[in-house]
Amino acid sequence: MLIKPRVKSINHFVLESVNYRMGLSVEDNRRYQNQMKGFQGEQLFDQLINHSQQNGYVVNDLFLSSKETHYQMDSILILNKQLIIYEVKNYTGEYCYKNGSLFSKNGYSLQNPVDQVNRKKAYLNNWLLNNGYLHKTKAYVVFINSDFYIYNLPLTKSILFVGQLERHFKTLTNANQSVNAQDKKLAQALANQHNGNYRPDNLPSYGFDSLKKGILCPECFSFAHTDTREKRICTTCGHIEKIADAIYRSVLEFQVLFPEVPISVQKIFEWCRGKYTKPRIRRVLSQKMTKYSNGPMTYYKN
Ligand SMILES: [Zn+2]
């Protein structure tokens, strides 16, 4: 049972939007490509875990903040008084294992993902103890891309290659795993701890004036479109969307980019490049959000 679905992180979302509205520096573009590759790997993992029809509760991309550190868990499965963390890596190519690190053919080293996931496991262990849960924790690194190989890897139980996942999930199912009220309570408690507003400090810099205005297609990120009375049709990929939905989607994108700027009809009118009338935008905002006044000005909140 899915308790928390996967959504793009703020980092991913901002890089994506700025990429299509302004363009990214070489360094930011590299980070954007990594975000996309990672997200695709996680989506593939989601498909495989869904397909295995686990009894347990699934909490995806959980972001927990402690005083000193932030921990992002790609996927957590809770069942039968155990909590399993999956760290999904969409690496490609050939690597060599040496003294606890992974090295590419060109000699670049990768942070050891097993150490990484074990730190998350230790943090969650303490969290469970502090909150009165008796669940046992396990952690795995999942290499989700079949085009990835590690030479000289010593036998380790905490690494799963994509070809081993089906058997791994089957073993869990066959162990006649049951779920109980504590499992559900824990899954919900963790989902409630999720910090969805975390903004990393290395986001690209941009301002309202520097971003290209208009509504991006959610499928192909093109601005090109044609409209019927109620629908917006992407002329690049053919995606069809209700105009009201497209406007609201654009409002949500604006909020992620500019969390400090109040939402007004005028601002969204400009953000949509004057394409839709102010009464139409006002209608969407009134339907989807709550109106409030600040002196003579009217704003909208979720
Ligand atoms: Zn499109």
Outline the structure in words.
The longest helix has 26 residues, at 26-51. The chain has eight helices and 15 strands. The chain is α/β, with parallel strands linked by helices. The model has no long low-confidence stretch (mean pLDDT 94). Strands 1-2-3-4-8-10 form a six-stranded mixed sheet, sandwiched between helices. Zinc ion binds at residues 217, 219-220, 222, 234, 236-237, 239.
Structural class: alpha/beta
Unreliable sequence segments: none
What is the count of helical runs?
8
Largest sheet: 6 strands, mixed
Taking the alpha carbons of the first and last residues, their distance comes to 27 Å
Short overview:
This protein is 38% helix and 25% strand.
Key traits:
globular; alpha/beta; 38% helix; 6-stranded mixed beta sheet; 302 residues; 15 strands; Arc Repressor Mutant, subunit A; binds zinc ion
